[in-house]
Amino acid sequence: MDSLITAGELAKLASTTKRTILFYDQKGVLKPAKVNGEGYRLYRQEQILDYQRILLLSTLGVSLDEMKA
Prior knowledge:
alpha+beta, 4 helices
């Protein structure tokens, strides 16, 4: 399995905040690859591209509900 990173590490790599990453998780558009036994959300590094896609779609006026679908 790929090495997994925390929401905070993903946020740092994506130049955003952990709160933003968690917001998109709550909205169901950027789900973690795994949640460990301690409740930490773990992501694959490749999910930075998913985050960037969310930003692009938001800029184009696509709603979070549309992205989720």
